[in-house]
Amino acid sequence: MSDHRPPESFLRKLSKVFIPLWGIRAGLYLTAQHLFKRKFTVQYPEQRIEIDPSYRGKLSLLTEPGNNADICISCQQCAKICPVECIHIIPTVDEKKKRHVGTFDVDLAKCLFCGLCEDICPEFCIVLDPLYDYSSYSRDGLYLTVEGLSRNADDEEWRAMREVKEKKKREAEAKKKAREAAAAEKKKEG
User: Fold this and answer.
1) Which of 118, 127, 132, 175 is the most exposed place for a label (fewest CB within 10 A)?
2) Global model pTM greater than 0.70
3) Which of 135, 77, 82, 149 lies closest to 112 in space, CA to CA?
4) Rounded Cα–Cα distance for residues 57 and 137 (Å)
5) pLDDT of 86 strictly over 90
6) Contact at 8 Å (CB) between 100 and 66?
């Protein structure tokens, strides 16, 4: 059985040659643009580049400014929402039945730096700092405990945390009053 293909048109043959050449031309043009631009080099340890404010770096556990008391209430919401389960918390309970941080371990080798733990924290004590130059020669150095995670909240952070907490409290009270008013209205109608 013979293969009866129609002969290729001249335009088809021409396109097989010029389409790859067009791609090469575009690549060479882009390379030529950057070839003559001034080079941008940072001498890293002495110079630092400005990073974006939304950058999420090393995880930190904030403590109250001044007295260094833990803010974390060991609710374990951060450990539950973590997609890679890199946060491990074991709470302790004092004589007043109040929960405190007993063990708070983070395995930064597994951490995705997604910020879910920061978003869900009801006390706003977990922060992803803009620190990008921490490293370790072993995996053990990337396993941080409470001592390695804790840092004092500065006054601006502390003020912002208090404002957000108060705003959420006011919103919750307003919702509660609205529910009570709706229930009273429904009771009045029925």
Assistant:
1) 175
2) no
3) 82
4) 18
5) yes
6) no
Query: Are the CB atoms for 134 and 80 separated by under 8 Å?
Result: no
DSSP of 123-150, one letter per residue? T--EEE-S------SSGGGGEE-HHHHE
**Hey, what amino acid is at 118?**
E
Helix (H, G, I), strand (E, B) or coil at 31: helix
pLDDT tens for each residue of 129-186: 888 888 888 888 889 998 888 888 888 888 888 888 888 889 989 999 999 999 988 8
All structural domains of the chain with their residue ranges: 59-171
Rg of the chain over CA atoms, in angstroms? 29
The three-state secondary structure class of 182 is helix
Are 87 and 78 a contacting pair, CB within 8 Å? yes
- Cα separation, 61 vs 95, whole angstroms: 24
- CATH top-level class of 59-171: alpha beta
Q: Which helix (H) or strand (E) holds 34?
A: helix 10-35
Distance CA 67, CA 60 (A): 17
**6-50: pLDDT as tens digits:** 777 887 887 887 888 888 888 899 889 888 888 888 888 898 888
Spatial strand order in the sheet of 87-93: 87-93, 99-107, 143-144
